[in-house]
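Two entries, shown back to back:
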Amino acid sequence: MKIYGGNGRDTIYGGSGNDLIHGGNGRDWIHGGAGNDTLYGGNGRDKLFGGPGDDYLSGGNGRDLLAGGEGNDSLFGGNGNDVLLGGIGDDLLSGGRGRNLLDPGE
């Protein structure tokens, strides 16, 4: 499933398959759900939650929270002071520019 948010605050939930979700500009809450999801926060203070599966999360510009969940996830904070939480699995975490907190999980 492909989902594109707009400017402003979006709350987006993916399905049980492999989702591609772009939050757009603004403060977004994005939940990928089960499956191998690709989540982009865009500009703004975003919260991205991957869920079960091997997920790719990119926060973009702004102070973001990225949580991979179960699976082998790749998390990229971008510009801003970000918090990256890997979860269970073999995860790749890159905070980008800014003061970042990285927790690889288990």
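entry 2 starts here
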Amino acid sequence: MIYRGGKRLIASLAPLVFAAAAGGDAVSCGIIARNAEHLAGLVRAADGILRRDDPDAVCRVVLGGGLFADGGIYPALAERVPRGVELIRADVPPVYGAFCEATGDEPSPDVRGRFMADYAAAAAENNG
């Protein structure tokens, strides 16, 4: 029944699952553990490909979105990834990477600040 509401409805329940898990709810803890294991499987697959020629290299995985905030799925994922994988929680929107690529470098803190302010204003305008 709940799946008829679509992905947006399901995603809207994530904060409730995390809150219940923080309170020790076994079902919620199981949901987080299962999903962390699925994500870790994807990370292990990428790691196996990216470090095939250099097993001592570091495999950096950038995580974006609210699910990876403190208390989200991040702690469960972090304990499941292989040694040598560095999980990086993005503090900028994904489009920032395209912006950096277009400019050819990591912009200065001032440019980054203006970018983030403009991005927040555009997001508020589009959501309002």
